[in-house]
Amino acid sequence: MPSEVIYEAIEEFGLIKKEKSKTLFSKIGIVGCGIVGQNIARVASFYGIEVVFIEVSEDKIREAYRNIGKVLDQRIEHWGLTSGEKRAILSRIKGSLDYKDLSGCDFVIEAIRAVDRGGKLKERKQIFKKIEDVVDADCIIATNSTTIVITELSSELAHKERCVSIHFLISSSEAKMVEVVKGLYTSDEAYAKVCKFVQLINRKVIPVEESAGLIAVRMFVVILNEACEMLMEGISTVEHIDETMRIGFGMRIGPFELGDKMGLDKIVRWMDNIYNEFGDVRYKPSPYIKRLVRAKQLGEIAGKGFYNYDEDGIRIRPTDQKC
């Protein structure tokens, strides 16, 4: 009876054994690819990170690809990017309808637009649970929401310690800072990893204590409310108030132009949430902003807000300023 042949892997006899190690943040996920999600996806992919984003329909996925492509084309026109780099960036971004495609991610960011899929705490908690069901236990889960605290949002998860709140500003696609918030349950390790991610994409970490509105939103809504108050009192015009803040205080964008860029409906939700948290009248939405939102004049995305915009989103002139 012939003896049984035994096969042994030659690698076991090597002088040096190399173990393959996974690079931290080699793949991240984004739930919701609106303006914020598109910005995060584009920037992360630019720095060599694979990105998978989850949307609610194929149309939303195609829209996200189109918008990311438009921004990259603008960079090419201004000699900030080559066509080859654009192809490489887009090749690292994948859209999906299935949360299972988030498997293998080191970091998943919830960045839904509340008007599309609801901004209520309960619905965001459901999204967090869907993410937790498909990712590894060491995958960090974050929200880009500024007015919902991460401690409350992560309270029903099995691994609360890996949840963090971050805030990417959309006032400028190249804003070189990210607010990072450590919740009550957040571990030091998870917080340090998120700070490392922010540094990897060439942004400055702004540490913030857990508070509705953080720094940027809480300050901005007060400025915008006061600008609207002056507008209603007839003290000055939309353009001249914006010019005062741009020229006099060095702001890159005036408060009205910035409000249009962010979306006035989103700003009203921010104001309502912060007002409910603190009860301070400074945060209560101005009647002028609420009037624009009721008229569906939501800003740049709608073609009309404090200013009018053409089909390419280029500002034309202020809207009727009478209140």
Topology:
Layout: E1 27-31, H1 35-46, E2 50-54, H2 58-77, H3 83-91, E3 93-96, E4 107-110, H4 114-117, H5 121-134, E5 140-143, H6 150-153, E6 163-168, E7 177-182, H7 188-200, E8 204-208, H8 216-232, H9 238-249, H10 255-262, H11 264-278, H12 287-294, E9 307-309, E10 315-318
Give the structure's gist in a few sentences.
This protein has 323 residues and is of the alpha/beta class. It has twelve helices and ten strands. The longest helix has 20 residues.
List keywords for this structure.
single chain; globular; alpha/beta; 323 residues; two-stranded antiparallel ribbon; 12 helices; 42% helix
| Major beta sheet summary | 8 strands, mixed
Strand order of the main beta sheet, please?
Answer: 3-2-1-4-5-6-7-8
Number of strands: 10
Rounded average pLDDT: 88
Percent range for helical residues? 40-55%
Q: What integer value in Å does the Rg equal?
A: 23 Å
Query: Rough shape?
Result: globular
Order of helices and strands: EHEHHEEHHEHEEHEHHHHHEE
- Tally of separate helices: 12
Please indicate the percent range of residues in DSSP E strands (runs of 2 or more). 5-15%
- First and last CA, distance: 101 Å
Low-confidence stretches: none
Q: Which structural category do the helix and sheet elements fall into?
A: alpha/beta
